[in-house]
Design brief:
heterodimer, A: 305 residues, mainly alpha, MetI-like fold, 12 helices, 0% strand, B: 283 residues, two-stranded antiparallel sheet, 11 helices, 76% helix, globular
C-alpha cells in the first residue's frame, strides 16, 4: 500500500505553460520514453485481467442494482397483504389488477399518450437529427438537448406556467402530449444524428450527382438508412413517455391519470401488493422495449449520455 | 423575402424549421415565462396576477419573491442541504461505479456489451418503481423516512449515469501506459493513482454532472423516502406550485435552481476540459 512518488527522471521540456495538473504531466513524462522501445510483448500485462476484489466489488454493485427490483417481483407473488415475509405463492394481485378500473384506465391513458407522443417526437426528432448533422444549425442543438440535460422539474413547472398563464389551456391529454414530445425530441435527434455520422457521405453525393432531387435522395437513400435509428428512437421515446412521472405530474391537471401517477398516489397512501404486481408488469414492458431498442441501434443506449 | 427558393434551401428549412419552431414555443418560451413569472405578484386565486391583459404586458414587476427568499434563512438552508445531498450522492456513485466501470472496460469485447446492458436495464424501469423497491427494503430496517434512505434512493436511481461515462473513458485507455509504468517499477497502487485515475478524470467529471444535476432537482425521492426534515429544492418548488399556489415564489425558486444547475454544468465542463488538456498529450 505504500505510495512512492519518485521525481520524474527527465525534466519537463515545456515550461509548464498552462500550469495544468503537475501529477499528470509528471507521470506521463515518466511513461513516455518507455513506450518507444516497448513495441514487443510485455510480461504480465497489468491492465488486463481483473483482480478478485474488483470482481467482488462489481458483483456487489450488480446485486445492489438488482436486489431491490427482485424483491418487488418476488412480493408480487406473495400471498400476504403485508410486504414483510414470504407466505405462499399466489397470482391474485395480478387478478385484482385486471379488475381495477382506475388502473386499467391509467394504463390505457399511458399507452395512448406514449404512442402519439413518441410518433410525433420521432418525426420531429428525425428532422432535428438530420438538420443537426447536415446543416449544423446553431440554435437547434441547444433547443433539443437542453430539455434532456436539465432537471425534469424545471421543464415541468415552466410548461405548467406556460399552459395555464399564457395559453390558458385546461390541463389534460393535450398538455401531457406536448410535454412528452418536448423532452423526447432530443433523444431521437441524438440517435438519428449518430447514425448519420457513421455513414459514408459519398452515397448522398452520388445521388446528387445522378440528378436526384433532395426529396428523392431522402426517400430512397436517407430514410432506408436511418430506419433502424428511427425505430430505436421511437422505442426510446415510447419508454420515456410511459415511464415519465415528474413532468407529467405537473402538467396532468386533475382529469387525466397515467400509470406512473396512479402508482404514485398508491404508494403515497399505502403499500399494497397490487403495486408490486403493476410494477412487475411495467418493468417487463419497458425491459422488452429497451432490449428491442438495443437491437435496432446498439449505440442508442450509449447516446443517452 | 425568401432569398432563393431552390430545392436545397427548401430541404434545409423543411427539416430545420418544424423541430425548431416546436421547441421555441414549448421549451424556450416557457423557460422565459418562468423568468417573467418570478417577477410577478401572486394572483388572487393562486397562480399569477395575469401576465397579459388585452394583449399588453400589465402590472408592475416586483422583486418581492426574491426578497422573500433571501429574507428567511430557511430557504437558503434547504438549498445548501440539497447541494450537500447531491455532493454526497455523487461521491458514493463514483466509489461504486469505479470498480464496475473498470471491470467492464477490461472485459473481453463480447462480454462488455452484456455487462453494460446489465447496468442499463434496472435504469429502464420506472423511477417510482425503483423508489418503491427501497420503501419495501428499508421499511423493515427502520431506515425509512431518514436522510440515509434519501441518499440510498438517490444513489440507486442515478448510479448508471456515473458508470456509463466512466466506462466509456476507461475503455479508451492505452494499456501500454500501464505496462510502461510497471516496467518503470510502479506498483499497482501507484499505477492506479498516477496513471489510470488522472486519465479518467474527464469521465468522472461528466458522470458527476449527470448525477449531481438531476439529484439537485429531485422531489419524488425525498418525498417518498425522506422524513419531513429531508425536503430538498424540488420539494420546495413542488409545494409552491401545487400546494401553496404561490407561483411567483415557485418560479423564483426554479430560476435559482436553474442558475445553480448552469453553474455546476459550467464547472463540470471546465474541469473536464482542463483535465482533458492534461491527458491528451498521452492518449
Amino acid at each position: 500500500m505504500k505510495v512512492e512518488r519518485p521525481p520524474p527522471p527527465t525534466p519537463r521540456p515545456e515550461g509548464g505553460g498552462d500550469g495544468g495538473s503537475p501529477p499528470i504531466g509528471g507521470s506521463m513524462q515518466l511513461a513516455r520514453p518507455a513506450l518507444s522501445p516497448g513495441g514487443e510483448a510485455v510480461r504480465g500485462r497489468p491492465g488486463s485481467g481483473a483482480r478478485p476484489w474488483i470482481w467482488a466489488a462489481s458483483l456487489g454493485v450488480y446485486a445492489f442494482l438488482y436486489l431491490p427490483l427482485a424483491v418487488v417481483v418476488l412480493f408480487s407473488f406473495n400471498d400476504s397483504v403485508l410486504n414483510a415475509e414470504w407466505v405462499g405463492f399466489t397470482t391474485r394481485w395480478y387478478d385484482r389488477l385486471l379488475h381495477d378500473e382506475d388502473m386499467l384506465r391509467a394504463a390505457a391513458n399511458s399507452l395512448l399518450i406514449a404512442l402519439v407522443s413518441s410518433s410525433t417526437a420521432t418525426v420531429l426528432g428525425a428532422m432535428a437529427g438530420i438538420a443537426m448533422h447536415r446543416y449544423r444549425p446553431r440554435l437547434l442543438p441547444f433547443l433539443a438537448l437542453t430539455p434532456v440535460a436539465m432537471p425534469e422539474i424545471l421543464l415541468g413547472v415552466s410548461l405548467l406556467l406556460f399552459f395555464r398563464q399564457v395559453l390558458d389551456l385546461t390541463l389534460g391529454l393535450t398538455s401531457i402530449l406536448i410535454a412528452h414530445v418536448t423532452f423526447s425530441i432530443g433523444f431521437v435527434a441524438v440517435i438519428v444524428r449518430s447514425r448519420l455520422a457513421g455513414m459514408d457521405e459519398s452515397i448522398f453525393e452520388a445521388a446528387r450527382d445522378l440528378g436526384a432531387t433532395p426529396w428523392a435522395t431522402f426517400r430512397r437513400i436517407t430514410l432506408p438508412l436511418i430506419l433502424p435509428a428511427l425505430a430505436a428512437g421511437f422505442l426510446m421515446a415510447f419508454t420515456l413517455s410511459i415511464d415519465d412521472f415528474v413532468i407529467t405530474f405537473f402538467v396532468a391537471g386533475v382529469g387525466v391519470v397515467t400509470l406512473p401517477l396512479q402508482i404514485y398516489s398508491m404508494i403515497k397512501v399505502t403499500v399494497t401488493p397490487e403495486v408490486n404486481a403493476v410494477s412487475t408488469l411495467l418493468m417487463l414492458l419497458t425491459l422488452s422495449v429497451v432490449v428491442a431498442a438495443a437491437r435496432f441501434a446498439p449505440d442508442a443506449l450509449k447516446a443517452r449520455e | 423575402m425568401i432569398r432563393k427558393l431552390n430545392p436545397g434551401n427548401l430541404a434545409r428549412w423543411a427539416v430545420t424549421l418544424p423541430p425548431s419552431l416546436f421547441l421555441v414555443v414549448f421549451f424556450l418560451l416557457p423557460a422565459l415565462i418562468v423568468v417573467a413569472a418570478s417577477l410577478r405578484e401572486p394572483g388572487e386565486f393562486g397562480g399569477l396576477a395575469p401576465l397579459f391583459v388585452g394583449g399588453a404586458f400589465t402590472h408592475a414587476l416586483t422583486l418581492d419573491s426574491y426578497r422573500f427568499f433571501f429574507g428567511d434563512t430557511i430557504y437558503l438552508e434547504i438549498f445548501v442541504k440539497s447541494f450537500f445531498i447531491a455532493l454526497l450522492t455523487t461521491l458514493i456513485c463514483i466509489a461504486l461505479a469505479y470498480p464496475l466501470a473498470w471491470l467492464i472496460a477490461r472485459s473481453p469485447k463480447r462480454r462488455r456489451d452484456l455487462l453494460v446492458l446489465l447496468v442499463i436495464l434496472p435504469f429502464a424501469s420506472n423511477l417510482l418503481i425503483r423508489v418503491y423497491a427501497w420503501i419495501l427494503l428499508l421499511g423493515p430496517l427502520n431506515l425509512l423516512y431518514t436522510p440515509v434512505a434519501v441518499v440510498a434512493g438517490m444513489v440507486y436511481v442515478h448510479l448508471p449515469f456515473m458508470v456509463l461515462p466512466l466506462y466509456t473513458n476507461l475503455e479508451k485507455h492505452d494499456p501500454a501506459l500501464l505496462e510502461a509504468a510497471q516496467d518503470l517499477g510502479a506498483g499497482t497502487w501507484t499505477r492506479f493513482w498516477r496513471v489510470t485515475f488522472p486519465l479518467s478524470l474527464p469521465g468522472i467529471f461528466s458522470g458527476s454532472a449527470l448525477v449531481f444535476i438531476p439529484v439537485l432537482g429531485m422531489f419524488a425521492i425525498p418525498e417518498l423516502l425522506g422524513g419531513t426534515g429531508d425536503l430538498m429544492i424540488g420539494n420546495l418548488i413542488k409545494e409552491q406550485f401545487l400546494d401553496n399556489r404561490d407561483w411567483p415564489f415557485g418560479a423564483t425558486l426554479s430560476l435559482l435552481l436553474t442558475v445553480a444547475v448552469l453553474l455546476c454544468a459550467g464547472l463540470a465542463v471546465l474541469a473536464a476540459k482542463k483535465s482533458f488538456k492534461g491527458t491528451e498529450a498521452v492518449t
